[in-house]
Amino acid sequence: MSSTKSPITTTRKDGQGLLLGRFEIGKLLGHGSFAKVYLARNLKSNEQVAIKVIDKEKILKTGLISHIKREISILRRVRHPNIVQLYEVMATKTKIYFVMEYVKGGELFNKVAKGRLKEDVARKYFQQLISAVGFCHSRGVFHRDLKPENILLDESGDLKVSDFGLSAISEQIKGDGLFHTFCGTPAYVAPEVLGRKGYEASKVDIWSCGVILFVLMAGYLPFHDQNIMVMYKKIYRGEFRCPRWFSPELARLCKRVLDTTPETRITIPEIMENKWFKKGFRRVRFYFEGDKLCSLQDGDDRVNVEDDGIDYSSDQSSYSESESEMDSRRGLTLPRPASLNAFDLISFSRGFSLSGLFEDGVEESRFVSRAPVSNIISKLEELAQVVKFSVRKKDCRVSLEGSREGVKGPLTIAVEIFELTPILRVVEVKKKAGDKGEYDEFLEQELRPRLRELMHSDQSGECESSHLPSDTE
Predict the structure, then answer these.
(1) Rounded to an integer, what distance in angstroms lies between the CA atom of residue 304 and that of residue 318?
(2) In this predicted model, which residue has the larger pLDDT, 326 or 370?
(3) How far is it, in rounded angstroms, from Cα 402 to Cα 385?
């Protein structure tokens, strides 16, 4: 996150605003009570982005700062081809800025407002929606306000889920295992939410997906009435009728998704096995190079990639093998690690570090090593093989990703190597995703013991490690 005391924008000769010297601000795209969204251009990459500008004073007065932090945490947790991507967060004394992917095609609502869609088009959108929602659920994230207005279309006609402002995470679940907050849009809200007795957020999202599917195929809402209380009664009773042009397979799927009993409502894995859904469906396989999304086709021999529906990983800095690493396998030299300066060292202090300001449960540890970069990476690869973690690498950064699903998704750990002096390196270890307790256990039982031999020791034999203490500590 960046912060500055200087004015946040300057004015260029052509009248355009310049945000923090990095983004050229364009037209206003939309606004709400606490934020405005602008089209902008990244001066370095020349790419268009959307920048959400949030008024700090307003959210502090209304007690919504924790809400904003949670939204940031959620967006960093759910990087997927069918979800609008958060690139970075910046802040000044008065504003918070979300730099986000700009989706040019507008809302799905605008497309549906012109009339019902062809079956193949509606099926494609529903497949992408279920892929995105299933990915969120595997990360312990629940949208709770799915509707065509919160679904965007890019210039290629692919779907992007947006607006996670009402989203919840699994950590918020009460003692009874249910959510109790009444939220959502009336026409898309599930009957159990109306009952106000607690609900499973994943089941609520599935219901909303069912309403969206019906709207795409029918051109109108399954539950509708000018009197909102009458509409709620229809929803609560599940009173709807499929139009005659629905195929028998589609009608059966709609009835299963719009089942008023949450316990018997179809699940996302069951939807993905449904005959109507599976027609032409291909799982999304992807990885991220920094902020760039890279998709893979079937038969690609690249390994350790994200696969929608299988081995989800929420590593927010997912890296694939680079040319430099392939060169190193051929006996060439690995790239030199980034050098640390005085400001970097100060930021490593617990008192000065700002890295966790907008993060949700980020843990980080560091130690000094004399070992060559190649040895450190080899040791991490050996560790990954023993504990059956997948490995993603780029230059001097390594991501270790577990395959076991937990409440917060698989445990994902990022390791980056920096140069302190020509013979000393700092190894930084961060938990990027997963449960804190599982991370602490992994750190104590696997990571620390196996990396201890890499730690540089002084003449007294004590490890020079700031956050990876010795067993006697």
Answers:
(1) 10
(2) 370
(3) 11
The answer on pLDDT for 355 being more than 60 is: no
Q: What DSSP state is assigned to residue 463?
A: B
Residue 145 annotated among the catalytic residues of the structure? yes
Does residue 252 surpass a pLDDT of 80? yes
Q: Report how far residue 64's alpha carbon sits from residue 74's, in angstroms, rounded to the nearest whole number.
A: 15
In the chain, the number of structural domains is: 3
* 197 known member of a binding site: no
**Residue among 134, 166, 138, 131 nearest 150 (CA):** 166
* HSE-up of residue 328 (Cα within 13 Å, Cβ side): 19
Q: What is the phi-psi region of residue 267: left when phi exceeds 0, alpha when psi lies from -120 to 50, beta otherwise?
A: beta
How confident is the model over 452-469, as a mean pLDDT?
52
- For 407-419, what is the mean pLDDT? 80
Q: Answer whether 401's CB lies under 8 Å from 442's CB.
A: no
Domain with 213, as residue range(s), is 108-281
Confidence at residue 52, expressed as pLDDT on a 0 to 100 scale: 94
- Asked if 263 and 314 sit in the same domain, the reply is no
CATH number of the domain residue 79 falls in: 3.30.200.20
Same-domain check for residues 72 and 34: yes
pTM above 0.85, yes or no: no
In a domain, 473, yes or no: no
Among residues 14, 120, 145, 307, the one annotated as catalytic is 145
State the Cα–Cα distance between residues 298 and 285, nearest whole angstrom. Answer: 8
**Four-residue CA torsion sign, 443, 316, 346, 456:** positive
Report residue 384 as tokens: 């990954």
Q: Give the best-scoring range by mean pLDDT among 166-175, 198-207, 332-341.
A: 198-207
Q: Give, for 228, the enclosing helix (H) or strand (E).
A: helix 228-237
- Shared domain check, 124 and 84: no
The amino acid occupying position 28 is L
Q: What is the C-alpha separation between 227 and 363, in angstroms, rounded?
A: 50
CATH number for the domain harbouring residue 445: 3.30.310.80
19 closest CA partner among 44, 33, 34, 35:
44
| Predicted local distance difference test score (pLDDT) of residue 54 | 93
